[in-house]
Amino acid sequence: MTVVTLLDQAQQFLYCDDQLAALATEVLSHAPAEPAIRTALACHLAAPHTPAATLAANAGLEIATVRDMYLFARRNPQLPLLVGSSYYPHRLRWGFAAATVAEWLRRPEIPQRIRAREPVLAETMEIHPTRGTCNYRCRMCLWSDQAEFTYATKQLDTHGLMGVGDWTGVIDELAAAGVRRLIVSGGGEALINPDLPDILNHAVGLGIEIHVYTTGFSIQPGSRLFAALLRCHRIRFSVHSPDPITYDHIAGTRPRQRALERVTTNLAALLEERGESPAVGIGMVIQPGNHAQIEAMADFAEACGVDWLDLRKDEVDVTEGLDDAQLIVVRDQLKAVRARVGGSTRIDIGDELVMLANGLSPDRSRTAECLGRWFRPTIGAFGHLTPCDLKAEPRFAATGYDLGNVKRSRILDVVAASNGRRIDDDCAQCMPSSRTGNAVIHKLLDDLQAGVSLEEQPFV
Number of structural domains, the chain? Predict the structure, then answer.
């Protein structure tokens, strides 16, 4: 590929949308006059996960030129406006890179240990402290206890469910290993586990930040669980439609349960009782059944008074895919909601949806090796440690991705025993967050190997 072709592709990416083009033009107009730096900057913005040496080779540049471009990017006051915009299709990827660089600067032993295949845990860990079941049957959920996809049929239940003592013991180990953030999500619905208040309170008592993903159906205002949730940092309610009929259709709930009404009431109670925390938001997974309700969901979130609304696509294709006509409807609504100004609810659009709104094809490129276990490993309901949340779920579990069981062994012993095993990035389905994480971690490690320090990264 010639330098001209590479630059042309980068410009097509940055100028595919009028708002994105205006932001990109502002950044590039302040770049040094040297064409080489401008080329490197445009190519970097179009693919920020590209290693510095690869970018230099592809663009016919010296790696020193890429480092000069990184320096300009760090100092350019216009750049945060671009990469933080809902018009930029790599916003979440850039944010993950910035968070990772900040973490590695605090804990420089992490990249060193990754490269040496030594036991180490990132600051973020996902756990599934559930009873291995859920009171919903969401159509696009990664988890399922239907006849075909269960912990039993996947032989994940051999050692029994993790009990409260198991979880508090593991959390003690995680805190000692430097874990600062726990994502409570998956493996069913955590809030129907009667031990969850004790697990959450134990983690909060150790100074660990807690993020909870829930249907919100089982929150009971005034209960021990409700009090424990008020001590968490972030809580995201999965609400995939503002319409009760559509909600029941997607969630598998029955009309007589009045599920959406109950969830909305619980959400309001949490907002009413909270102090400075937790932050409370809504997550909506866009799929055929609700594809025309994005603007209505934005209105619903604003009316509820939540802090943010996450808009994501069914990106592992559990439900039937959106057809061309539905994609057009989705694209038009995304354009409408991201053009809104002045609302109190922040609308957070996933990178794949931003690409759709901009008329681009999603970036589903993969890496040679899966490094998920070094940025968001997951402990399943039965104690299995897996590289990511997807592989902890019965629907996607596979023997080759089971790193060991923390119910039987200390977690760092499990990590140490499994670190030498290479995991190819060849899963049939992969979460966008995992694809993003893999690409970014590979880039940062490659750059360190090439002599580009963390302090030089443009994400700082």
Answer: 2
